[in-house]
Amino acid sequence: MENDLLSTIQAAQRLAISTTTMYQWLADSDAGTLVIRGQQVRIGYLQGGPKGQGRIKIEAQEIERLKDLMRVQPSQPRHRCPPRPKNFFPGITVELGRPD
Fold first, then answer.
1. Which of 10, 41, 54, 79 could be bridged to 6 by S-S, CB 3.0 to 4.6 A?
2. pLDDT tens column, 12-36
3. Of 7, 30, 3, 22, which Cα lies nearest the Cα of 70?
């Protein structure tokens, strides 16, 4: 299965995206502008025909690599400092207000 060649329709189905999106990803990959989850990605694919205008085929292992890049990894929640009180003025050490 790892060396199977898939059509763009089959590849799009495995990635759960539309065929149009798959073609857009291939075009963006060729231009060097495809970014998945903040990482620049190149997609390796085969295209037959005498002038390179034949049907596009993508290896199954390339689709698995793309799926791994799309996978969301759970992250730890960011540590947040507690809110400061409204009467907190850094660097001022005396009591504020009119002197008596």
1. 10
2. 999 999 999 999 999 999 999 999 9
3. 22
